[in-house]
Write a structure and sequence with these properties.
With about 250 residues, this protein is α/β, with parallel strands linked by helices. Helix content is about 55%, strand content about 10%. The chain has a six-stranded parallel beta sheet with strand order 3-2-1-4-5-6, with helices on both faces. The protein starts with a strand and ends with a helix. The relative contact order is 0.13. InterPro entries: Enolase-ppase_E1 (IPR023943), HAD-like_sf (IPR036412), HAD_sf (IPR023214).
Amino acid sequence: CILLDIEGTTSSIDFVRKDLHKYLIQNIQNYIVNHWNDVEVQKVVKELIFMNKEENQAAIHDENSDVKCKDVSKIQEDTINKIKNEIQSDQKSAAVKELQGLVWMDGFTKGELVGHLYPDVVDAFKIWKSQVKDIYIYSNGSVQSQCMLFGRSVYGDLRKYIAGNFDTNVGSKLDAESYSKICQTIGKSPNEVVFFSDRPKELFAAKEAGLQIVLVIRNPECPMFTEEMCLLKNTDPTINSFLEVVNNAEEEEK
């Protein structure tokens, strides 16, 4: 079966790092204020501000007290600042990643965001599906945001092609154990799974777990190749498009 990274593999790095990042920064404050009492938002608040349940609930729900109303504003301000600091430093906790996914989901639902995918992605999905190959996604972004990206993409709703999604709740993408867990979850032996990514360190971890790996280089003209990339190019398949793999497989079957 197929296991795919997103950023730099199925979708442009610029879309993830620039478009989605910009939308998050511009909308995170309003989202938190407007959805303050939502369970998901309160979960993030409790993890970031380290308030106990009684204090948190009192500050949120007692609107008759001026002091507590001021507390809510202060809590919101502290929460927003902590979240923005994590985003800017690219050191996002699991809770912030979950909230990030909710903000993006809101943007996709409103039509303010449309998921970018490389043109070969939808064609490869169709061919893999016809070959009865299950497709799974493994990304640092939350499962919710993954589903929205593929559900509201420039090519329409592609979720019907995807058998399942994994995020960092299963573990770090740099940890071989994460890939072992995914294989156990989907009921496949590691050597039955092919992992595609543009990140050498992720590929090394997957290979350590026994998966087959493919290095994806979406910009072949880019002069910046790391030592790890060069090493992988000498030992494992390297592609610029999923169709290279699909076409090669079809030729081998003939």
